[in-house]
Amino acid sequence: MKLKLKEVLRYLGFRGRPADAETVRTAEEIAEDFLHILTPKCVYKRYAVEVTDHTVTLDGWRIESEKLAHHLRGCKAAYLFAATLGVQADRRIRQIAARSMSRGTVANAVCSALIESYCDEMQAELAERELREGLYLRPRFSPGYGDFALESQREIFARLECEKRIGVALTDTLLMTPVKSVSAVIGVADTADCTYRRCQNCTKTDCAFREGGGA
Predict the structure, then answer these.
(1) Domain boundaries, the chain
(2) Which residues form the AdoMet activation domain (predicted)?
């Protein structure tokens, strides 16, 4: 797991303009602290899938989502995937914020970047495994993106036993705790021609965190 400073600065709102030296130093200092204390974990399962124009069926679970179906078009299998930085991240962010709100904001951005970095590394390992069979992974697609309902979290968490296996639970409002956690579907295809990025799958085009300059 490595710090991607560009991603941290993006979360902090530095888009199209350079960050000041103090913010960069603070981000690097806080990231070093987190990298020493965090023990991220992930869990995943691979399933066969059937995809139509508007639905995805995964081991008897029928998902109504045109965006997810479009993203998984051509896939015959998919992973359900979940990962977390653990309770240490949430606890440390609160401790930092209690002393300085500005540093707490940076700490939050650092952890947002670190969980994505960890997910990228775990997905790279899965991709290497699939490549041995001539297969390729699609980018992660998470509940809440586009029309992939947030309620799908319940099924993902039940199938992966997230609370038991990696210590991640769902709140009554379907948010994850610890907060710095991710759940997603990752398609497996027999071609490497996917051009999608996470943000291109999301219909929230005015999001401040959107990649590609909001295009």
Answers:
(1) 5-203
(2) 123-203
Q: How far is CA 180 from the centre of its chain?
A: 9
CA angle 82, 143, 135 (to 5 degrees): 60
Instruction: Give the mean pLDDT per block of 10 residues along the chain (215 residues).
Output: 91 87 94 95 97 94 96 95 97 97 97 96 95 94 94 97 97 95 96 54 45 36
How many whole angstroms separate alpha carbon 85 and alpha carbon 151? 22
Tokens of 70: 């479009």
User: Cα separation of 121 and 91, whole Å?
Assistant: 24
Query: pTM for the complete prediction?
Result: 0.86
Q: Which CATH number fits domain 5-203: 3.30.310.10, 3.20.20.80, 3.30.450.40, 3.40.109.40?
A: 3.40.109.40
Backbone dihedral region for residue 71 (phi beyond 0: left; psi -120 to 50: alpha; all else: beta) = alpha
